[in-house]
Amino acid sequence: MSSLLRAPAQRPVPDAPVWHAAPPPLQLRRVHHRTRATTAGIDGVDLVLGPAELIALQGPPGAGKTTLLRIAAGLQRPDAGRVLVAGEDLNAVGPGRRERLRRHHLALVPSRPDCRSLLGPLQRLEAEIARALALGPTVLLIDEPVGGFDPETGPAVLERLARLRDDEGLTSVVATADGALAARAPRRIRLREGRVVAGDV
User: For residue range 40-90, what is the model confidence (pLDDT) as tens digits?
Assistant: First the structure.
């Protein structure tokens, strides 16, 4: 008598999920930039900025902080090296793609002189940060937020950025010459004469 029993059909085993880590929001790879004698250059800077980080970029006046922030924001091209935004090289893509990457991922709040205003220094800075965040960037770069301001402005700004980090996953970099303010940030990078000299890079 022939057997009517058959081995149960083998169900295909699904492939194990493959997790691809997203690239960091911003990376600088061996960035060099030569500038005029009155402006600090950048000499071989390597930085990786991860998601939801709050970072102080500390250095004395003339260390190259502003130049580095402008290069990181895509507003200035380095002479050599790579600026990677969400894994894409800003200087290797076409102008249209470069502008989209810059607008959708990066925002820079430049240093401002402490001019007279109806608003207080903290309120003015808050307004500038709000404008910079209007397009929903993943990285916010702030240049010297406490220049000429009262001593309470810097810590208040860091508290605001910490809330944005926790609530929205924003990565922020605050350039400052104020060592006490930089020490309040969870991560500090020190810049001198265009080079990273200490800190968790």
Answer: 689 999 999 999 999 999 999 989 999 999 999 999 999 999 999 999 999
Rounded Cα distance between 113 and 6, Å, is 84
CA torsion, points 197, 58, 47, 200, in degrees to nearest 10? 70
C-alpha–C-alpha distance, residues 173 and 69, integer Å: 9
Domains of the chain, with CATH numbers?
Answer: 26-199 (3.40.50.300)
Per DSSP, the residues of the chain read ------PPPPPPPPPPP---PPPPSEEEEEEEE---TTS--EEEEEEEE-TT-EEEEE--TTSSHHHHHHHHTTSS--SEEEEEETTEETTTS-HHHHHHHHHHHEEEE--------SS-HHHHHHHHHHHHTTT--SEEEEE-TTTTS-TTHHHHHHHHHHHHHHHH--EEEEEES-HHHHTTSSEEEEEETTEEEEE--
pTM of the model: 0.83
